[in-house]
Design brief:
With 86 residues, the protein is an alpha+beta fold. The protein contains two helices and two strands. It has a domain at 52-85. Helix content is 28%, strand content 14%. It starts with 25 loop residues before the first strand and ends with a helix.
């Protein structure tokens, strides 16, 4: 189990925000029914950093498309009808 480096009480401000000490960057928040909030650090990636595996899948898909290997046509009007209902 990891050792805690800090423990302190926080109070939300009028806009339900808190200030974290020593916090840097982006966090993913998960709120639970009992009031707990779990913060996990996140690293946002630049668009230029697409993995080689993803790029190879994209290249393969484009080769298949260029060779005429495509799926059946479908009608997007059904999607629009669903959006209009919402």
């Amino acid at each position: 189990m990891r050792k805690a480096i800090a423990e302190y009480d926080l109070k939300t401000d009028s806009k339900k925000r808190v200030t974290l000490r020593r916090a840097h960057g982006y966090y993913h928040a998960t709120e639970y029914e009992d009031g707990r909030i779990l913060l996990e650090p996140r690293e946002l990636r630049a668009p230029e950093s697409i993995s080689r595996l993803t790029l190879s899948h994209m290249d393969e898909a484009m080769r298949a498309f260029a060779a005429g290997s495509v799926g059946d046509e479908f009608d997007l009007s059904e999607v629009q009808d669903l959006l209009d209902e919402a």
